[in-house]
Amino acid sequence: MSNTNKLLSYETWVHAVSGATGSVIAMATFYPLDTVRQRLQLSSTDQKAESTIKEMQKLIANEGVRTLYQGMSPVLQSLCASNFIYFYTFHGLKRMLGTESTAIKDLLVGSVAGIINVLVTSPLWVVNTRLKSSPQPFRTLTEGLVYIGKNEGRSGLWAGLLPSLLLVSNPAIQFMTYETVKRKLNAAYGDMPAITYFLVGALAKAVATVTTYPLQLAQTRLRHGGNTAKKTNMITLIYNILKTNGIIGLYKGLEAKLLQTILTAALMFAAYEKIAIFVLTILRAKIKQHK
């Protein structure tokens, strides 16, 4: 089979669709935690960080329950596109490269998939960050892309691109950890129940999030825009946070981020694995019948 056929194979498509579907299911389930996470990351550096539960209670008391789901539709649309691209590229490249999978190979392939994903989908996440944080002169993903492109140009649409590119290390570390642990467990126990994939996904995301969190904090603030963000860059922003609040300032909102990303990633991987196994089993059976 040629490299082109490997990249366009039905198995690669199944992994991409399963990954996109799993991510949408997971994000829709735990979306309020993502809203709380972003509010904590965007709050003033000298403002005392609240716990996730207290911040959620405060948002509900001040703005109502609906605010926890503000901007959910465009986030799900962007996440679906983003994860389709990432899973497709990751599994397509792995099939093209062939040979036995290793942790280093998964890390390198995950990094390439992450770079492609970031370059294509960054404008979607800039719009999402704006929609979730405060009232905007646009209400949908398309309106936001047009508005920011018209008023701020490419620099506005790709705001926070540098930390986003550096943050390809996050999914790369996540997938490396996930695939490595999954290979060992599959070798020892064969196919596993959904709860095992859930726990392995949670572990992988915890490792990736703690490792890269300061970059995620800088990314969110740069994407949010505003006068301060427009006049600074990632290095200056991180330096100012360190100067004002020390190391602890770089991890503001980490509790909410860990809670949200670990649960979301865990559910995503559990759903992805079971959907992919189910669909591939049916397709392979049908292909076998027609031979």
What does this molecule look like?
It is a single chain. By secondary structure, this protein is mainly alpha-helical. It has one domain (3-289): Alpha/alpha barrel (Mitochondrial carrier fold). The chain contains 12 helices and no strands. The protein is globular, with a radius of gyration of 20 Å.
Secondary-structure map with pairings?
Elements: H1 3-7, H2 10-42, H3 52-63, H4 72-97, H5 103-133, H6 141-157, H7 161-166, H8 169-189, H9 194-224, H10 226-230, H11 234-245, H12 254-289
Helix pairs in contact: 2-3, 2-4, 2-12, 4-5, 5-6, 5-8, 8-9, 9-12
Low-confidence stretches: none
Percentage beta strand: under 5%
Morphology: globular
What's the CATH superfamily, by name? Mitochondrial carrier domain
Q: Which range best describes the helical content: under 10%, 10-25%, 25-40%, 40-55%, 55-70% or over 70%?
A: over 70%
Order of helices and strands: HHHHHHHHHHHH
Pairing-aware structural class of the strands and helices?
mainly alpha
Distance between the termini: 17 Å
- Please, what is the average pLDDT? 86
| The CATH top-level class label | Mainly Alpha
Q: How many beta-strand runs?
A: 0
Largest sheet: none
Give a brief outline of the structure:
The protein is an all-alpha fold and 291 residues long. Helices cover 81% and strands 0% of the residues.
